[in-house]
Amino acid sequence: MEIIKQAAMYILGFKSYVMLPIIIFLLALVFRIKLKTAIKSAFTIGIGFIGIFIVFDYFVAIITPVIQALIQKTGLHLNVLDAGWPPLAVITWSFGFAPLFIILIMAVNLTLLLTRLTKTVNIDIWNYWHFIFTGALVYNATKNIFLSAVATAVISIITLKIADLSAPMVNKFSGMEGISIPTLSAAAYFPFGIIGNKIIDKIPFINKLDANPEKMKEKIGLAGEPMIIGFVIGIILGIIGGYDARKVSELAFGIAAVIYILPKMADIVGTSLIPVSEGMKDFIKKHFPSIGKTYIALDVAVLVGFPSVVVTAILLMPLALILAFVLPGVQFIPLGDLVNIVGTVALVCTATKGNVIRSFLIGIPIIIIHLYTASNMAVMYTNLAAAVNYNLENYQGIFTSFLDGGNVIRVWLVKLFTGNNYALLLLPLFILMFFLTWKFAEKN
């Protein structure tokens, strides 16, 4: 078991922009794609992801000081640390059964493919940690490996089904054919997006507002350009944060650059996938015709650069800080995970077809849910860290994770599998939510 764990940890230690090109190259060979095309596709998808991560890291670097300035202005101090998602991932890979659960998730995916219960080929191995973390939490609370394995399988199945339902809209929104997004941190909120969008359809006046950055530039010209919108948002944030004129201008140009460059990187990824996607379709049609249409799973990172996603996230960031300040019972400042709101709202924006106003409104209850669920789960996360001998550097207290720690589907399943009565009472609500998601997504 220890040898398997070490081997798995070594492989998963590779960056996604290294691992994904290798997987894509191997798949291309399996699908009988020409060697030259396979190599080119593998390299360009890796380069595209590197570009996304470089630009996103720059975005984090320029937006974090503004967030810290806003926190200082509020004078907000709470007793739980928002450590972000990295500690949760480290804890997951420290879980003793993690290697076996990787095999379990692959087996579940293959079984669903062969039985035509999913269309997603989940090659995004790094993000398996989202599913395994659920199992680790259940095991730490119950010491029951069977319940832990079932919880891991169930959350992977739910995520695959959401990825299937959202895939046609993802393809249209992104312009990338043949992909789906089974990243739990994003997929969990596609139901909120698709149902929330239908509710807004019934609200007078608001249902007429369409603030899609791509459409706005067609209607109002230069003022509607996504980079100009980003520039204006940067100026507003800089002024609120108390920046001087020089820093305000630097922030404004920085956000404008992020909004302009990220879609270019996503386009590189999409272009590189075309030969592999077509090759996979032909291969499956020839050798496994019963499976039907399939999608290649990709990390939500391929969507975070689209203007509507970035703009929605930037608008929700200061709101999250305000809500943490005014809502009773919230125990942390959402700092460590705040910029990753771009991933959380990516499929919400997909469901609203890039309408920033609708995405922002739907994002408000999502933020509130995260603040409360992440607060509620803080002790459980801290206890799990102690169980796998993980310690945060220079911090000994209770910690949580605003976004991944507050993931509504994971938290509900963990509570359900650990015998929480409130989670059981919410079962009909979640069943209704998944049913409505299926119904509305099928219509779209």
Automatic annotation (TrEMBL):
Localization per record? Cell membrane
Q: What is its main location?
A: membrane
Topological category with respect to the lipid bilayer = Multi-pass membrane protein
Query: Which cellular component appears as one GO term in the record?
Result: plasma membrane
Q: Which UniProt keywords apply?
A: Cell membrane, Membrane, Phosphotransferase system, Sugar transport, Transferase, Transmembrane, Transmembrane helix, Transport
Output the superkingdom of the source species.
Bacteria
Is Cell membrane one of the keywords? yes
Q: Does the keyword RNA-binding apply?
A: no
Any one GO MF annotation of this record = galactitol transmembrane transporter activity
**Domain named PTS EIIC type-2: residues:** 8-438
The record's annotation in InterPro entries points to: EIIC-GAT, PTS_EIIC_2, PTS_sugar-sp_permease
Q: GO biological process annotations for this chain's record? A: phosphoenolpyruvate-dependent sugar phosphotransferase system
What's a Pfam family in this record? Answer: EIIC-GAT
* Listed transmembrane segments: 12-31, 43-71, 91-114, 126-159, 179-200, 220-240, 252-274, 295-326, 332-349, 356-374, 422-441
User: What is this protein's record name?
Assistant: Phosphotransferase system, galactitol-specific IIC component
* Species of provenance: Acetivibrio clariflavus (strain DSM 19732 / NBRC 101661 / EBR45)
